[in-house]
Structures are given as C-alpha cells and as structure tokens.
Amino acid sequence: MAATVIDGKAFAARVRGQVATHVAALKADHGITPGLAVVLVGEDPASQVYVKSKGKMTLEVGMKSVEHKLDAGTAEADLLALIHQLNTDPEIHGILVQLPLPGHLDEDLVINSIDPAKDVDGFHISNVGLLGTGQDSMVPCTPLGCLMMLRDHHGSLSGMDAVVIGRSNIVGKPMAQLLLGDSCTVTIAHSRTKDLADVVRRADIVVAAVGRPQMVPGDWIKPGATVIDVGINRIDKPEGGTRLVGDVDYDSCAAVAGAITPVPGGVGPMTIACLLANTVTACCRANGLPAPEGLTV
Ligand code: NDP
Fold first, then answer.
1. What PROSITE patterns does UniProt report for this protein, alphabetically (predicted)?
2. pTM of the full structure
3. Residue located nearest, by CA, to atom 42 of ligand 1
4. For domain 141-268, is the CATH number 3.40.50.720?
5. In this structure, which CATH number among 3.40.50.720, 3.30.70.20, 3.40.50.10860, 2.40.50.40 belongs to the domain 31-118?
6. How far is the CA of 210 from the centre of ligand 1 (A)?
7. What is the pLDDT along the chain (297 residues), one digit of tens a residue?
8. With contact defined as beta carbons under 8 Å apart, do 150 and 157 qualify?
C-alpha cells in the first residue's frame, strides 16, 4: 500500500492559523502584540530569501515584524550591542539571528548573547540544557515541526523505535531529545555509524537530517515506518535546470513506508510556522500567561 503523504504545507497553514488566533486574543484581551526581530548580517542569497519570507508570515499572523539588515563587515561589538538593545526592548518577544554568520563573527558568542527567553530558534545554551533535562524551553523550530507532524500522525509515540540520521545541534540532537521526551527508543546515526542500513531498518520512525541528496533508499525502510525527510538539496535535472530533493529517495521509500513527508512541502514549511509558534509562546511566558497548547512540547 502506498504511504500516506504527510502534507507539511497544509499542516503549517493550520499552525499559522492557530498562531493568528492566539495573536488576536493577546491583542484583544491583554493589549499585547507579539514582536519578532530578525537580524541578518551580510548578503547570503538563501538567507535573504528566508528572512523575507519570515517577515511576511510574521505580519500575516498579526505580529510585529522588525528586520535588521547589517553589512557583511559588521563588527562583533556592534552586533552584540544590537542584540542587547533587542533583549531589553519590551515590544520584542522573539529574536532570531539568521545563520550562517560571516566568518569573523563568533556564532556561539552571538547566539548565547540573546536573552534565552527571547531565543525563538532555541539555540542558546540555556535552552539546549532545558530541553535536555525535560524542562520548559524554546525548542528549535525544525525538530519541533517534525515532532508536531509525528504526534499528529501517530498520536502517542511511546515505545516506538526512532532513528535520527544526523547529529547537528540545530536538527539531529534536539530531534533526538524530543523523541526521547515522547518515550521513543532513540538511536542517533551519523557519518561514522556502522551498518547504517541495518540501523535504519529497525526504525518505526526515521528522521533524515544529513544534507546528502536521496541518500536513504527504500530498501533501508521497515515496511510501514514513518519517514520524516528534513533534507533540502538542490540537484540538476537531466533535462536541464534544478529541483529540490530530500535526504531520502522519495519514490522507493514511499513504496515501503507507512507515511512520508515530501520535499518540498514537508518539513520546510513547518519550520517557519514553528518560529511563529515559538514567538507566541515566548510572548505568553514573558507576560505570565500560559503558553498556547499544541504550539510547543
Ligand atoms: P549538518 O551538515 O550540520 O549535519 C549533517 C549530519 O549528517 C552530521 O551529523 C553528519 O555526521 C551526518 N552525515 C553526513 N554524512 C552522513 C552519512 N553518509 N551517513 C550518516 N550520516 C551522515 O546539517 P544540518 O543538520 O544543518 O542539516 C541537515 C539537512 O537538513 C540539510 O539538507 C539541510 O539543508 C536541511 N535542513 C532543513 C531545514 C528545514 O527547514 N527543512 C532546516 C535545517 C536544515 P557527522 O556529525 O559525523 O559529520
């Protein structure tokens, strides 16, 4: 039987709808408008596209959107001063510094200078620690989106075998923490993993976050497993031009899996939706209000 296609685009539209409802309620009941500030340093074309689309969607859900575009040569002290200013701005509830930063800037220092309560990317070391110890935190957007889709599809994930391929700080590791938090038995695979095919074949849930186009073939997938494809890779088409593919070979995996996310239209749209969800969560927490249910873990 063909796999159920998990429609991330439609799911993300639902999440944005929920966010918009909460934003409207915060305005009407408390006179508060959640605000998101995005800081972009330099002219990386992909980053410019992401920042533009984040700003557009922030406004669409009724939030305040602020963009700070800085020259590629911006001094670290000036960037830190801007972050300090945003940390203390009561109208800003979420701060996102678009990565990667130009090489002369210390990414860890910059991220860890963001107020953890406003760190809507969830990369601050305090949020990493809170997530790792099962406490309320800001959860990185891409893994949060993956978890939302998995919960929606399966209900409970308790007792399932999950394999996360990739151990980056922004996807693989937090994804594994979230699955562990939902009582999966979690394996994290990486470039040194022996017999990756055998490891993946044991999984009820496979999350691929590698950055290698179509690396996971269908014969690695346990029949009926759920496949979440985080990868975004651009490859050449035989007839010319390019197209986006994930880290799994979609056709062969979809023939075996029980459910699968497509690329594009799977995990990607959920990432921005979760950024907006995190901003509402941060705004609620900053104002002593309960975080909206269903928009965080
Ligand atoms: P990184 O490059 O930071 O990490 C890749 C991971 O894959 C590493 O842990 C690496 O292992 C592992 N890896 C590399 N080669 C292999 C291999 N042959 N077998 C097993 N593991 C391997 O990437 P990111 O986590 O930042 O991103 C992963 C993918 O997800 C990319 O395609 C990226 O574009 C995409 N992405 C998509 C997002 C979305 O919104 N949909 C958001 C963020 C990322 P090791 O540690 O041993 O080197």
1. THF_DHG_CYH_1, THF_DHG_CYH_2
2. 0.97
3. 142
4. yes
5. 3.40.50.10860
6. 3
7. 789 999 999 999 999 999 999 999 999 999 999 999 999 999 999 999 999 999 999 999 999 999 999 999 999 999 999 999 999 999 999 999 999 999 999 999 999 999 999 999 999 999 999 999 999 999 999 999 999 999 999 999 999 999 999 999 999 999 999 999 999 999 999 999 999 999 999 999 999 999 999 999 999 999 999 999 999 999 999 999 999 999 999 999 999 999 999 999 999 999 999 999 999 999 999 999 999 999 999
8. yes
